[in-house]
Write a structure and sequence with these properties.
Elements lengths: L2 H36 L9 H25 L11 H20 L1 H7 L10 H27 L5 H22 L5 H26 L1
Helix pairs in contact: 1-2, 1-5, 1-6, 2-5, 3-5, 3-7, 5-6, 5-7, 6-7
Amino acid sequence: MSSSKIEDECFVTMWFYLFSLFILWIAAWVFHGELSRAFPLYFASGSYGENFYWWVMKALLWLLPIFLILKKEKRSLLDLFKSERSFKLSLFWGLASAVVWIALAGVLDKLMGKIFEAPIHALSLVGGVLVAPIVEEIAFRGFVLARLEGSFSKLSANLLTSLFFVLIHWVGWYFQGKLSLASLWDPSLLIFAFSLYAGLIKKKSTS
């Protein structure tokens, strides 16, 4: 199979992954709403049940499709980052950035329209500092960004990846009742800038 055909197939699978992710992520939020109404004690905002639910959903909806696609292509996760060293560096900087992000949550609270208003306990902290950065690094800076770079310049690919990263957050904000014009742009710009920065870190770690 020619390299151009392989690149085309990678590009198609990336768009299929993104489209499916958005549809399934919306469905996950709808299902979460039903669970929180049926079992308010276990799935209240910030509860252990809610945190565990989103851990499972991210594993099933964000990561599992990527592993299946890579398995079909007879590739490994490290192929997304070119080497084990770059993968570890990307994860390190992703985790370090997440620590800074969480540390600034109190300051950003007012600016971001109470995006972080749920109480933070141990499980939420683990999810925010460990689980979310790893999942997002693999899904967006690993899979999506790497495939976009096969068809666009590195800057354009990073901009597009960051846009999709913001949009996937809009889904959650909508179902949380926080997607309003009055409080939308500041958090969106912050997350967009955060994603651009993470993409640049990945580029440096793989160069």
